[in-house]
Specification:
By secondary structure, the protein is an all-alpha fold. It is built from 14 helices and no strands. Helix 3 packs antiparallel against helix 4. The chain is globular.
């Protein structure tokens, strides 16, 4: 199911590339066909012109459909969540959490109490170190939208910040049960590592690694798998995980930024130690590759 969704998500890009390839190939074939008569006064045949136009039409139609769907989705999102939601989302990306909070609270006050608004407001409160308000919002989101995974995943992160590893595991397990996305499997694996449940952590991280991951998540997933495989005496799998960890080394900068945001929290300190271990492991792995 996840792979099918991923393929559907990439379908517009694939169709766009298909149209461009047809257009380019048709032009190339037409050029080579007309080379012998290009210097004569004979009219040039153009059997590939219609094919080139077809490719161009496919490309243009795909772009029109993509922009139309994006516009419709944006309009529906605005109607559902309120105009403040999009603005608050941008403010959150800019780390302006205190400015985002009143916008999201106004969305709720005007009847836009969706799971997305409740969860985003909870994240804003978490980032502002207002944990009790975040708990209240997430409990509300779970009461109203118990079949949705995101409130449980956000609650799991909040429990990690509070040092409640076992409760974090329970929350991430609930998120995975509702929507088994690779990112949720990764979060569950990280929480299980913190809870020293290594066997279960390895299983969760293996689930996460079955699908493409953002570079930052892949870096931590493969580092932990390398460590867990090494502890279990599985040298071949450990070496493979180490190689994949090295290929995801660009994600290190993202975690260093995250540590800055979490500075002063217990979870931030644990994450800082973990990222330092990953940095050391990357240096060792890269040195080993250079000496081979």
């Amino acid at each position: 199911m996840i792979r099918l969704r991923s393929l559907i998500g990439r379908l517009p890009t694939l169709v766009l590339l298909f149209g461009m390839v047809i257009f380019a190939l048709a032009l190339v074939f037409q050029y080579w066909l007309n080379r012998p008569i290009v210097a004569t006064i004979e009219p040039m045949a153009a059997p590939y012109a219609s094919l080139a136009l077809t490719g161009l039409a496919i490309t243009a139609l795909t772009l029109v459909i993509v922009f139309t769907v994006a516009g419709i989705a944006l309009a529906r999102q605005t109607r559902r969540h309120g105009s403040e939601y999009a603005h608050a989302y941008r403010l959150m990306d800019e780390l302006q959490f205190s400015e985002a909070i009143p916008l999201l609270e106004n969305s709720i006050a005007t009847g836009k109490e969706t799971v997305e608004v409740l969860t985003l407001l909870a994240r804003a409160y978490i980032s502002s170190a207002h944990y009790s308000q975040a708990h209240s919002l997430l409990e509300r989101a779970i009461d109203l939208y118990g079949d949705q995974a995101d409130p449980y995943a956000t609650l799991g992160f909040l429990f990690l910040l509070e040092g409640s590893d076992e409760q974090a595991v329970t929350a991430f397990q609930a998120a995975v049960e509702r929507q088994p996305l690779p990112a949720y499997w990764a979060d569950l694996g990280f929480a299980l590592v913190f809870a020293h449940r290594d066997s279960e952590a390895r299983t969760a991280l293996e689930k996460a690694s079955e699908h493409p991951l953002p570079t930052a998540d892949a870096l931590r997933v493969y580092h932990h798998l390398m460590v867990l495989y090494t502890a279990a005496g599985r040298a071949t799998q450990a070496a493979s995980a180490a190689a994949k960890m090295v290929s995801a080394r660009e994600g290190l900068a993202d975690w260093e930024d995250q540590i800055t945001l979490l500075k002063g929290t217990g979870y931030g300190q644990r994450l800082a130690r973990e990222i330092q271990n990953i940095s050391d492991a990357l240096k060792e792995a890269e040195s080993a590759l250079l000496t081979v």
